[in-house]
# Entry
Amino acid sequence: MKQSVGIFHPRVVLKFFSGRVGVMLSRCGSSKKYKKLDAKLERKMMEFKRHTSGRNNFRSFDSIIMRFPQFREGLKNIRGVFAQYDEDSNGIIDHEELKKCLQKLQLHLSEEEVEDLFCSCDADGSQGIQFNEFVVLLCLIYLLMEPSTSPHPTSKMASPQLEATFDTIIEAFLFLDNNGDGKLNKKDMVKALNAASPRERSPAHITRTRFKEMDGNRSGKVGIRDFLFALTDWVGLDSDEDIPISGS
# Structure
């Protein structure tokens, strides 16, 4: 990825992508349709939060933004995984291909859970999972997979690098989830956005904008799936454009 020489300005990056996030999230289905799946994901996030015991490498929202180039490069590597499961090479993962993907990863879900997983990640309602949607889906699969009980555990996804990227993204979500309930609210966002510099508190309208970019269904709560959709768009995963890193 080409990068221009200059000082990284996180808010320049968010301004660059914020106009695109709402358009995509507005197509997402209502979270009410996936209550069981969302409840399961929330429990998983709460477990992660407890296991970290307050340890986190992020100190502000800006510190998350500074990782955007790293996130983008790590997630772009999923294209090979996508191609592997897109058996007919038509650019989407259909229901049957998803089932084979879950079987290979040894993730056992009920038919209802598989359907919810598929539909909740099919953001544009095309009845197929495109690459950007697959990135979100694969991270959710990673969250739902149980740790290996083998005395010689191996990488859950046969890719330590991919798992490291997912772990860092999960850590970013946990940083924003101050109360550890597995979802974000506006109060969490205010605290995170103001943590970078107590003397330079984020204006209320900026806080609202950032939260709206994640809260696509305007429920006032943001789960890990909505966070992932916003993040993939923020980092410009669907574009070959360079992420702007200079203030000029």
